[in-house]
Amino acid sequence: TVEGGQVEEVTFSVGSKNGHAVGNIVPIYHGLKVKLHDSKASLFKRIEYSVLTFVAKEFFIRHDNPGKAGQPPRVGAIDHTFNGESIVQFLWYAVRGGIEKSILK
Q1: Is the pLDDT of residue 85 over 80?
Q2: Is the pTM above the cut of 0.85?
């Protein structure tokens, strides 16, 4: 779950030909905070979520894009092939893949 942060801008360019979408997405954001949780989980599962949240924050999630002032923002590549999903799902999966690539370290 995204707990906080500020998105300033998102630009993207994507094209699709013969069921294959390619392009790029550039999200500009600051202070991204994530948390894994389930309010109905057992004590041990909540502890597991806490550990996984820590690991994600420290090693996998980029909290700011761009990382430092003056640096260019990270660009996420969009590259998705149609797999029988609806057109809305196809577009979402293509854009989501680019977002993931720009947010993950």
Answers
A1: yes
A2: no
